[in-house]
Amino acid sequence: MLTIAPEPPIWKAVLGFDFDDTLMLRHGEPRLDPEFFECVQWVRSNYGAAWGICTGRSLYQLVEGFNEAKFPFLPDFVIAREREIYFPGQFGRWVGHDDWNQLCEKEHKKLFRRAKRPLKKVQKFVEKETDGRWVSMEGDPAGIIAASVDEMEEILGFVEELNLPAEVGYERNGIYLRFSHRQFSKGTCLVESAARWDVSPENILAIGDNYNDLSMLQPAVCSASGCPANSVPEVQHYVANRGGKVASKDGSRGVMEILGHYFDQ
Predict the structure, then answer these.
(1) Segments making up each domain of the chain, as ranges
(2) Under 8 Å between Cβ of 193 and 164
(3) Which of 45, 70, 157, 199 has an alpha carbon 20 to 30 Å from 113's alpha carbon atom?
């Protein structure tokens, strides 16, 4: 069973890391460098920095990832499906931020009822005009898996021409996309998680590699930002243009490079 590391008396900063291809590479070695855990624990202990995972995975899928990557201890918080917040409880169990998660579920149900017709047009376009696949499941009724990155760009061009309700946003990671409420994203979740310890965006560092990480790399969310070398070009350009750290290494080694940039070790 994974343990919870002892907390410092007061949290002074918050670190938010994407999981897939930021901390844990899908391809390439090492998939996750074990030295990362020593590094993040050092920053946690010496700077009072709570750390968390911000991912598009479901909580169940993320726990599987923790086991696969042999996490020696739990992060201090988790953002799952890019919109749900969890904190570690007793016996390695995750406890939801009920006020946030319940509001999130309620608002998404309302949104998908309002957006049913235009999203149906997107579904028809995907199924009739592309080689992509429309995905609908419990809790995520509107998602897309494109056949290629270029095809995803074509689909997004169609989406942008539609008159979707203003609250409809989407989270994209390569060829994968899910529609969601703009109020609930990695960015808003990271700010809400940090507020649990009265930590403001001035003391938040966010690190990610893909399009769905852009919401948490905004200056309104974090004063410090970074991305590993394997990040998509759009993320690298965004981080560089706002004065963040673009690492020279991939994955977890890039994350450690970024931590070394912001924290004296």
Answers:
(1) 13-82+185-262, 102-181
(2) no
(3) 157
Under DSSP, the state recorded for 5 is: P
Nearby residues of 47 by Cβ (< 8 Å), 6 or more positions away: 12, 13, 263
- Report the distance separating Cα 17 and Cα 176, nearest Å: 19
pTM to 2 decimals?
A: 0.94
Q: Is 178 exposed, middle or buried (0-12, 13-18, 19+ CB in 10 A)?
A: buried
Domain covering 13-82+185-262 in this structure, CATH number: 3.40.50.1000
Output b/e per residue, 15-32; b: 16+ Cβ within 10 A: bbbbbbbbbbbeeeeeeb
d(CA 8, CA 16): 18
Phi-psi label, residue 144: left if phi above 0, alpha if psi -120 to 50, beta otherwise: beta
Planar angle of CA 92, 101, 87, nearest 5 degrees? 25
- Do the beta carbons of residue 239 and residue 227 sit within 8 Å? yes
pLDDT at 163: 84
Write down the pLDDT at residue 2.
Answer: 60
The band of 72, judged by pLDDT with boundaries at 50, 70 and 90, is very high
80-126 pLDDT, tens digit each:
999 999 999 887 789 999 999 999 999 999 999 999 999 999 999 99
Q: What is the rounded CA–CA span in Å between residue 171 and residue 138?
A: 17
Copy the structure tokens of residue 243. Answer: 């004065």
Percent of the chain with pLDDT strictly greater than 90: 90
Is the per-residue pLDDT at 227 higher than 90?
yes
Q: Are 53 and 17 in contact (CB under 8 A)?
A: yes
| Long-range contact set of residues 88-92: C-beta below 8 Å, sequence gap at least 24 | 88/4, 91/1, 92/1, 92/2, 92/3, 92/4
Q: What is the mean pLDDT of residues 233-243?
A: 98
